[in-house]
């Protein structure tokens, strides 16, 4: 089994690898996100995503992309650390990053069979849905685990720091 760092691939490297695996009828599951502070909600989501096919690919938003989405002060962990942490999960087969605001381009490059997103996305608004479905693949929506949110965790930490620094 590769180490977590061994699971981290460039987009080009991963595209070539997935092309070979697809030719062997391996079903490729794809999801993306910031995964800034890994919590049980993330782990459960990724385990459910992996159960949808033979191999799970995670595309992490780059640091620049996270800042555009979440604002200044995010991400908490830099993309190299986030890649290593996500790659350490046994349910994850490969990790890569993308700079764009949406994953449309990387989805088209990697051509997954199954696109997975969290239940907070309305299915017809999932980026990449049209491409995956037109390619014969499917789109799966997985409910989020209630009570887990990176933004909430960050706010709790900031609140704790404010109360203890007085």
What labels would you give this structure?
166 residues; alpha/beta; 5-stranded parallel β-sheet; 42% helix; 17% strand
In whole angstroms, the N-to-C terminal distance is 48 Å
Helix-strand category = alpha/beta
What is the ordering of alpha helices and beta strands? HEHEHHEHEHEH
Rough shape? globular
Oligomer: single chain
Strand content: 15-25%
Strand order in space, largest sheet: 3-2-1-4-5
Specify the biggest β-sheet.
Answer: 5 strands, parallel
Overall strand count: 5
Report on the architecture of this protein.
The protein is α/β, with parallel strands linked by helices. It has helices at residues 11-23, 40-50, 63-70, 79-87, 104-110, 129-134, 150-164; strands spanning 28-33, 55-61, 94-98, 114-118, 138-142. The longest helix has 15 residues, at 150-164. The model has no long low-confidence stretch (mean pLDDT 90).
Topology:
Elements: H1 11-23, E1 28-33, H2 40-50, E2 55-61, H3 63-70, H4 79-87, E3 94-98, H5 104-110, E4 114-118, H6 129-134, E5 138-142, H7 150-164
Parallel strand pairs: 1-2, 1-4, 2-3, 4-5
Quick recap of the structure?
It is built from seven helices and five strands; from the N terminus they run αβαβααβαβαβα.
């Amino acid at each position: 089994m590769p180490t977590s760092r061994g699971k981290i691939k460039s987009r080009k490297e991963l595209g070539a690898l997935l092309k070979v695996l697809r030719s062997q009828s391996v079903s490729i599951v794809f999801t993306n996100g910031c995964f800034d502070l890994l919590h049980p909600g993330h782990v459960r989501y990724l385990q459910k995503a992996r159960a949808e096919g033979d191999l799970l690919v995670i595309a992490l938003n780059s640091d620049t992309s996270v800042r555009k989405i979440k604002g200044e002060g995010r991400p908490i962990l830099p993309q190299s650390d986030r890649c290593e942490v996500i790659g350490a999960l046994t349910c994850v087969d490969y990790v890569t990053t993308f700079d764009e605001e949406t994953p449309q381009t990387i989805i088209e490059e990697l051509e997954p069979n199954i696109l997975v997103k969290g239940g907070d996305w309305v299915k017809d608004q999932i980026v990449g849905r049209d491409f995956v479905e037109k390619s014969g693949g499917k789109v799966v929506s997985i409910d989020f685990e209630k009570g887990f949110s990176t933004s909430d965790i960050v706010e709790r930490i900031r609140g704790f720091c404010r109360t203890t620094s007085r």
